Amino acid sequence: MNKRQGTLKESFVQFAWDRIEKAQGETCNDPRFIDIREKHFEAFEKFKAMITPEAYKFYLDEVEPTESEMECYDIERIYLQGVKDGAELKQVLELGGDLNA
């Protein structure tokens, strides 16, 4: 990959993350999301009460960061696939073609 391709890819990834952050901001006000978040918080509080302080510290230091990293990677992959799918759909619709072709 040459420098220009690298810069274009970096710019696109930054654009993708900007769009993801905008969508997440909108999601935070969605009643369904608020309900899910509350259920998650309640379950997590019950979980915390069931484990030792050492286990909780291990979770915060070792497990949670990798969960967050995996989630970010997954979000990025899903968004990029959506962009590819959108471009393919646009092309098919412009050509009057079939998505299964």
Summarize this structure as a short list of keywords or feature phrases:
mainly alpha, 2 domains, 87% helix, 0% strand
The stretches of 5 or more residues where confidence is low (pLDDT under 50) are none
Largest sheet: none
Number of strands: 0
Structural class by SSE content: mainly alpha
Count of all domains: 2
Rg, alpha carbons: 20 Å
Q: Which band does the percent of strand residues land in? A: under 5%
Q: What form results from the Cα inertia axes?
A: elongated
Give helix and strand order, one letter per element, not per position. Answer: HHH
Distance between the termini: 31 Å
Average of per-residue pLDDT values: 85
Helical stretch tally: 3
Approximately how much helix is present in the residues? over 70%
Brief sketch in words of this structure:
By secondary structure, the chain is mainly α. It has helices at 3-27, 31-50, 53-95.
Describe this structure in words.
This protein has 101 residues and is mostly helical. It has two domains: 17-50; 52-101. It is 87% helix and 0% strand.
Secondary structure elements and pairings:
Blueprint: H1 3-27, H2 31-50, H3 53-95
